[in-house]
Design brief:
By secondary structure, this protein is α+β, with helices and mostly antiparallel strands. The chain is built from 12 helices and 5 strands. Helix 3 crosses helix 6 (121-134), helix 8 (198-214) runs antiparallel to helix 9 and helix 9 (220-231) runs antiparallel to helix 10.
């Protein structure tokens, strides 16, 4: 892990703190206007329980301070905003990404991205958005398939895109099409350029963490908490219940996994009785592992 060892769960005497973080996460996700930075910090605290309230507050203060270094309301529309943020964060402070960042869990943790000035496209975009928003910029996230970027201006009118992973390089829609084609082989569509909602961003971050852990079986605990946080979001794919059950069984919690499989069977039973029956057979097989 290049010097960083994630913790799947706090030590036993930290279980109460973990439960409190989960409660705060669920509550924050249901706010009328979810605080993206706060949700990202609550995710980070699952990997790094040393990230306490004071440390999280320090991250928010740092984002405020960075916003204070931007010129206020530059004339000329969205492009000067994008250039100013790229000049500060990309050119002067060195925030950007490299291929190696995809191999590090820190690249998905907001406090570590601020410390290292390196991260995945989506976390670097969170930094761009949070700093720019605090400065008054018309900014939003753009969840391109395979590569998250940031938009400035009116997403349905005059706008400019920036790629924080590339230091804030300004993009045309045609450039965005090249990114999409490189990641998926598919053409860019207008729908891909619509603003990403905060909870969509949070779910995508958690999916990235799950993918990182899934490739490293020794970190199944990380995969488990990423799934469990995803399940706390007001809206999530029903399939996550099945993924959660499989992880529980994989980690030896056969009864917990069987119970979750039964709950998932109830969800799918109304639309696919055959699939529900197959899931119930999986639940029975999980219980049989106790014999």
């Amino acid at each position: 892990m290049n010097g960083y060892e994630p913790r799947g769960h706090p030590e036993p005497d930290g279980d109460g703190a973990s439960a409190e973080r989960r409660r705060q996460f669920a509550e924050a996700a249901r706010d009328e206007r979810p605080d993206l930075a706060r949700l990202c910090l609550l995710i980070a605290a699952e990997a790094d329980p040393a990230l306490d309230t004071a440390s999280a507050d320090a991250v928010q203060i740092e984002l405020d301070a960075l916003a204070g270094r931007l010129p206020f309301a530059p004339a000329g529309g969205p492009r000067p905003w994008a250039r100013n943020v790229a000049e500060l964060l990309g050119a002067r402070l060195g925030f950007r990404g490299t291929p190696a960042d995809y191999r590090r869990l820190e690249s998905s943790l907001l406090h570590e991205v601020l410390r290292r000035r390196r991260g995945l496209p989506i976390l670097l975009s969170v930094v761009w958005m949070e700093v720019a928003r605090r400065a008054g910029a018309p900014v939003y996230g753009v969840a391109l398939p395979g590569h998250f970027v940031v938009g400035f201006g009116d997403p349905y009118g005059a706008h400019v895109l920036a790629d924080p992973f590339d230091g804030g390089r300004l993009l045309t829609d045609e450039d965005a099409g090249v990114l999409v084609a490189g990641a998926t082989g598919a053409p860019l569509t207008e729908q891909m350029l619509t603003p990403a909602e905060p909870l969509e961003i949070v779910l995508r971050i958690l999916n990235n963490i799950r993918a990182w852990a899934a490739a490293r079986p020794e970190h199944s605990a990380v995969q488990l908490w990423a799934v469990e946080l995803s399940l706390l979001l007001p809206s999530h794919p029903a399939r996550l219940r099945h993924d959660h059950a499989q992880l529980l069984v994989q980690r030896g919690d056969f009864l917990g996994g069987a119970a979750e499989l039964e709950e998932y069977a109830k969800v799918v039973g109304a639309v696919d009785p055959a699939a529900a029956a197959a899931v119930r057979r999986q639940a029975a097989a999980a219980r049989a592992m106790l014999n």
